[in-house]
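Team,

Forwarding the record for the chain on the shared tracking sheet. I've put the sequence and predicted structure together so nobody has to dig through attachments.
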Amino acid sequence: MSIDATEAGVVSLAFDDSLADAHVHNGGLACCAGQEIMEYFQGKRAVFTVPVSLSGLKPFTAGVLEAARNIPLGKTLTYGELAANITVPGAARAVGQALARNPVPIIIPCHRVIPASGNPGGYTWRERGSARSGTAIKTRLLELERIIVNGLP
């Protein structure tokens, strides 16, 4: 995993196929983010506390990502429901496009937003130097979260 952070917060997060390597840039918050992500994958973390910096993103995209960050572990919303939550009903497609630009997946859980059909829908999985469709990864993340929620006291 590759994590970049400034004093304001984590600005980017990308993975490789193995999830075994950690490349942390600018220490501090990036190290904290890496620790929290590993705890998440181990089923020990339900909420991320590390700050995120969305500076440089368009206001609509940043608003969508902030709203997505508030979706609790084990819950999902449809693209339309998230659009309504940010008071832009009918903007489901624009919400999907904003989520595809998420620079910090997992921490901002865009995988918790699904189509109204109930299937997982698309997911852009950021790998070092590229982005690819990650529908199978999205499904695995949602399954992991169901396991974590079921295991919580």
